[in-house]
Fold:
Amino acid sequence: NHVVLLLGTPHSCKSWFVESLAVSLLTSDSFMGEDGFRLTPSSVILLDEDTPSDVLLSRLERLSPDFDSLVCNPRFHLHSVEGLILRQKELDNLLKEIYSLPPPVVVFMDTLTTIASHLDLNKTDATLELSKTWAKIRETGATLIVTHHLTAKSEISYTDPDFTKKAMGNT
Structure:
């Protein structure tokens, strides 16, 4: 169980990447093509507060060889633009949902900017609260993959030793 933060500018295919990964986890198809990565079949919770339902379903249909089986899969829980903001009540509901699925479970949150909109991510106490939330999700045994939009407030070098601080300051 891990926490993965996928950073990128808007429209850099972060959502497509996680949607493709989610489909591969559910269908046992190799990720990134026939010569790609073999994954352990997993339950998936996809919380997408960035993509309208009709667009998201259209993407999933293009990504899945058997769309009907995918969306009817009891190991797949899809939430699209439901106004989710990860406060305590919503976190409790998410934890119950994780425990209701057979392990392993992968939770995708797209996008941090929306789901944690109640927090000022440039402040230490807010990032501490966020890390506690992520820790509770990890305690369930689930893996958490979060997308986060970067904006062009300043140039970011991925080789900079202070990358995380600069990246979080570019929200």
About this structure: Strands lie at 3-8, 43-48, 76-80, 105-110, 143-149. The chain has a mean pLDDT of 85.
